[in-house]
Each structure stands twice: as C-alpha cells, then as structure tokens.
Amino acid sequence: ETGVTQTPRHLVMGMTNKKSLKCEQHLGHNAMYWYKQSAKKPLELMFVYSLEERVENNSVPSRFSPECPNSSHLFLHLHTLQPEDSALYLCASSQDPRGTEAFFGQGTRLTVV
Amino acid sequence: EDQVTQSPEALRLQEGESSSLNCSYTVSGLRGLFWYRQDPGKGPEFLFTLYSAGEEKEKERLKATLTKKESFLHITAPKPEDSATYLCAVQAKTGGGADGLTFGKGTHLIIQP
After folding, report:
1. Of B36, B46, B98, the CB nearest to A56
2. A102, A108, B1, B91: least surrounded by Cβ within 10 Å?
3. Which chain A residues are within 8 Å of B99, Cβ to Cβ?
4. By the CB < 8 Å criterion, does A78 face chain B?
5. What are the φ and ψ backbone dihedral angles of B67, each rounded to 5 degrees?
6. Residues B22, B7: contact at Cβ < 8 Å?
C-alpha cells in the first residue's frame, strides 16, 4: 500500500460539472503538493501546503481550488474546467517542505469532455 | 528560472547493456536533486536524493552522481523490469517558504530481453 492515496483513480467530467480530487497521506509528513502531468510536458507544480497553510500557488487558474483541512488530507476542487485541463493530477507529500524527497500517490487521470 | 533538461528523451537497450542517463540543470542555488522512476499510469517512485557535487548514491543496478551542472543515472546490466521513465527534479534554495520540485521531461528507457 502506498503511503499517499488518491481518489478517484479516473474521472470524466463535463465542462459545467463540479468535482473534487482527494489525497490522503499516511506518512506523518508536514507538506503536501498538487502536481499536473500532461502528455509530453514535465510535471508542473500547482500548489504547496506546509502545515496546512498554502505557501505557493504557481499561477494556477481559479477554476482549480485547493483545500487542506489537516496535515493528512488535501483536496483539489474543480469547476468549469476546459478540455486542455485533461491530465494526470498527482498528489505528493514530504517530511520537510525544504530539501527532502517527495512521495507521490498514483494520481487521478482526469478527462474533461 | 530553474531549468532541468534530460537526455536522451528515449533509450532502448539490450538486457545487460549498461548506459547512463543525463540530467542537466540550471538553478540559482541547489537545495537538492532528485531521481524518480515512473511506470505507465502510475505516480513517480522516489529513487535518490543528491545534495552536493561529488555525492553518489547506489541502489541495486542504479547509481546516481552529481556535479555542479549535471547529474547522471548509471544503469549497470539492466533487466527488462528496469524499463520505465526516469525523471530528474531539482529544488532551489529560495528566500523562504516551501518549494516544490522543478522536473525534466524524463528519459523513457526500454530494456529488451
């Protein structure tokens, strides 16, 4: 069992829908991240949370809204997405937000139709 | 702006044929360089962290090295199960707060039996 669990694994949504991605880490880490992985592009950092506070937002459109209710859970709320938002969304956690390795979940494959 | 360039983009080897993957980076100040392995449809799996030039890490058939400008992932006598995409990422030293990783596009490695 991976230390970082993401649900759902696959999601198909229309452009007018609202959905949420969930991430849970069982590693006792203090930082959590959302990354986007599109075909032929490097992983792109979206958001960073350290001790439940958002410390970085990499110019992500407002149709993506993160939420971190506690140090073990992270959500990504989605609304009015575009087809180009279709990608693999990866959650990760690390013990320390500075200089320690991040551990990734299996990702949510999102398709916007 | 931090940049990571990996080469080659794809590499096909025969089983037992050793080779090296390259990761060139540009960063204002390196906090850490990370290697990951990613299988299709899955999240990246952590392999190594390197912090300073001259450092080396080994794990089974893999050995990672670091200089001030690049890192190499050496694969010795690879097996078909080593087939995957290998990702390199850097974390920069910044003024404060938490920082995510800047990734390269990866090297897609295929080991033929």
Report:
1. B98
2. B1
3. 48, 56, 97-98
4. no
5. -120, -175
6. yes
A51 token code pair: 């001790």
**CB contact (8 A) between residue B4 and residue A42:** yes
CA triplet A85, A65, A33: central angle to 5 degrees?
85
Q: How many Cα neighbours within 13 Å face the side chain of A5? A: 7
The tens place of each residue's pLDDT in chain A, 113 residues long, gives: 569 999 999 999 999 899 999 999 999 999 999 999 998 899 999 999 987 777 777 789 999 999 999 989 999 999 999 999 999 999 999 998 777 899 999 999 999 99
Q: How many CB atoms lie within 10 A of CB A59?
A: 5
**Backbone angles phi and psi of A85, in degrees to 5:** -80, -5
Residue appearing with tokens 């930082």 = A31
Q: What is the largest CA-CA distance in chain B?
A: 49
Helix, strand, or coil here: A8?
coil
